[in-house]
Amino acid sequence: MALDNYYYGSEQRGTIVKVGSIGRQTDIHASDIDIIYKIPKSTYDRYNAYSGNGQQAMLYAFRDVICGVYSRTYIKADGLVAAVKFTDNIDFELMPGLMKDDNSFTFPISNAGGSWGRTHPIPEIAAMNARHTETKRNARKLARMVRAWKETNGVNMGGLLIDTYVYRFLENYQYKENSYYYYDWIARDFFEYLSKQNDEASYIYALGSSQYIYLSRGFVYKAKNAYKHALDAIEAYDKEFYWTSKNHWQSIFGNKFPAF
To answer: Cα separation of 229 and 245, whole Å?
Structure first.
């Protein structure tokens, strides 16, 4: 791999960590893939010693190595990442990062004169893996359902925020290990839970890492609406009004999502 040769020569292979929703395996589209490439400490030290914006120099060098491999592919260095856009509409966003002893990564931010950021994807992935196992594979499924709701209804929530609320909700939830036949109740109860959160707070702590997730307003109101539709869908189904029930579920999750 070109990055391995550039950063490590023949000594060792670099480490690639898939991060974000695809790293936690809670994505519903494979069109955007976020990756951190682990760089040697000597590389970090060299760019950190720059008198001005060594972060930008690091990111541009990182981009240029990738350009040498994908010369006919659209590649740019933008603030935090090198973005690689392929003709099949799959976008890769690659970030060089120095792995610390606590499994966090220090990464370059080239904007505003340059600075170093920090992210903690590995404990977040581990937390989702653990919750998914203890809920008999319901955690990721619920997280994907919530993403379908987000896309259908234009909800202002990032993937890490969704996964954190799913993680918290399922911790003590009585039906967390139940099968597909309980997904109507699970969806109903999650939206009730989400509707009682405070989206006017500044931030919450992310699953696993406890890093800040800054909140945007509006998702609580939309969760209340989803909760009402879920209640109506379950009631209609119990009365054997199956078409009405299906319409309520699809108003939450969209036409591609299967009805219960």
So the answer is: 9
pLDDT tens sequence across 212-222:
999 989 999 99
Q: What is the model's pLDDT at position 79?
A: 58
pLDDT beyond 90 at 72: no
**Proportion of the chain above pLDDT 70, given as a percent:** 88
Q: How far apart are CA 128 and CA 135, in angstroms?
A: 10
Question: Checking phi first, is residue 85 left (phi over 0); if not, alpha (psi -120 to 50) or beta?
Answer: beta
What is the distance between the alpha carbons of residues 17 and 30, in angstroms, rounded to a whole number? 16
In the chain, where does the domain assigned CATH 3.30.460 lie?
Answer: 2-119
The CATH classification number of 2-119 equals 3.30.460
Q: Which residues pair with 169 in a beta bridge?
A: none
Any residues with CB less than 8 A from the CB of 129 and at least 6 apart, and which?
A: none
